[in-house]
Design a protein that fits this description.
Distance between the termini of chain A: 47 Å
CATH topology of chain A: Arylsulfatase, C-terminal domain
Number of domains of chain A: 1
Structural class of chain A: alpha+beta
Oligomer: homodimer
Largest sheet of chain A: 4 strands, antiparallel
Radius of gyration of chain A: 23 Å
CATH superfamily of chain A: Nucleosome assembly protein
CATH class of chain A: Alpha Beta
Order of helices and strands of chain A: HHHEEEHEHHHHH
CATH architecture of chain A: 2-Layer Sandwich
Number of helices of chain A: 9
Strand order of the largest sheet of chain A: 1-2-3-4
Low-confidence stretches of chain A: 243-276
Number of strands of chain A: 4
Helix content of chain A: 40-55%
């Protein structure tokens, strides 16, 4: 069908060059966007700190988040005071637009959880030889990961809640007993185990740690105000008009009073967040 | 839970401002990307023209495309010589990064389809009062479309294939007869009816015309080389090693010969396209 194969051949070579140029242009555009958004995110982080339970409300509103943590973790999700996702390219020119750092700050839960903030760095890796556990990996997985890159992370320390002592992997004395195995496996599925996730030991660490990291980076952090506002709207819809129940609904109480006082603020907020 | 409601109130007002600033920053970043990509797309358009059946192969490879057109349309999809999607913001500063123009060029099919190229412009509209048919629309649909905007388009003329005379809406003399109704409805579902789609008459024009436009703008055009390459790989996998069948597989024939001649070009292409 080709008039001359060399014509097609040159065209294919040219298309491959275009794909390279497009990938570079996309990275440059992404870096431009990162620099443009950074000051707005900084401003937003400071405002969010003033709103009680903001992160608990925003995270629990997202339909996917609960699939990555255990039900018992939500007590500790409620203790999250601050979440910040920063593209590494802002400080390190060696990094691509796809590398980022997630910082999570926990309030103290007396006698159970220590007040702490933990930062975890996520970088795109293309060297599949670094993957330590090859079990269940096909040659196509390797080829794809080598081409597209895959997310990796250094393990970081976090103080686990006291209530998790029995499933805390570092406190399980004997992992060989059925009981020990069971507790170890359970512990590896908690939100706290995610901080040790590396991306190099599939099946032997927190499951889908990369997907949870991407969820924070691509949805939970950039659109947190949208999720918070949706939750606010839901609460208002539920308790429409019966203010004597407000005392049982702190979130609702706050917002109702804010609305009385601040007029159409929250409607305004609703509208804007839809733009996301 | 708020220390003082005015604190929360100010925080909410500040967050609403942040959402505005983020929307503006996102549009600016998108415009920057558009300008960065434009020369690469122009270069790519010229190369694609040299590859026979490129668009037929790329479009039919996409899993969704076939959901928007009728099986009988594929004869005419095969006649597509060129597809170009251009962001309107490149030429008109009044346009947002979300407005675009799709140009499709058809080869002649003797005695059936005229050689022609048709350009259709798609713009984001926020004035829901312009929607002429409100049936099956909820107040929430209106609120959402007014906030997020919805896609609209001016109808454009295209010469329909002779073989479609019986279902060509403009040639159906009496649409009131059962036969006329049936043919009219069938005609409105062909790819050719999409060119008259406005987005203002839901239920009375080509169905999901906006989704098809977005499919061209967001997937089929930017990643066409990826789809073409996937199709090429599939054909090669199927006919691995039996070259006597190549004569029945024009696509395969071209590429096999190109590969023999051009060495690792097509592998190179495969690799690059995965970066998309």
């Amino acid at each position: 069908m080709c008039i001359a194969n060399s014509v097609c051949g040159n065209a294919f070579r040219g298309l491959a060059e275009c794909e390279d140029e497009m990938a570079l242009a996309e990275n440059e555009a992404e870096l431009y966007k990162i620099k443009l958004m950074a000051p707005v995110f900084d401003k937003r982080d400071k405002l969010i700190e003033k709103i009680p339970f903001f992160w608990n409300i925003a995270l629990t509103q997202h339909s996917d988040f609960s699939n990555y943590v255990r039900a018992s973790d939500f007590k500790y999700i409620e203790a999250i005071k601050k979440i910040v996702v920063k593209p590494l390219a802002l400080e390190d020119e060696e990094c691509t637009a796809r590398d980022f750092q997630i910082t999570i700050e926990f309030n103290e839960i007396k006698g159970d959880l220590k007040a702490q903030h933990v930062s975890k760095v996520f970088k795109i890796e293309k060297d599949v030889s670094k993957i330590l556990i090859k079990k269940n990996r096909t040659a196509e997985d390797d080829e794809l990961d080598a081409d597209l890159g895959f997310l990796t992370s250094e393990p970081v320390n976090i103080d686990w809640p006291k209530s998790y002592d029995n499933i805390n992997p570092e406190l399980i004395s004997d992992k060989s007993t059925p009981e020990g195995k069971k507790n170890y496996r359970t512990g590896m599925k908690t939100f706290f185990a995610w901080f040790k996730w590396t991306g190099l030991k599939p099946g032997k660490e927190f499951p889908n740690g990369d997907a949870l990291a991407n969820l924070f980076n691509e949805e939970l952090y950039p659109y947190c105000v949208k999720y918070y506002t949706e939750a606010q709207r839901d609460v208002m819809d539920e308790s429409d008009g019966d203010s004597e129940d407000d005392s049982d609904a702190p979130l609702d109480l706050d917002l109702e009073e804010v609305n009385d006082e601040e007029g159409s603020d929250s409607k305004h907020l609703n509208k804007k967040t839809k733009l996301q």
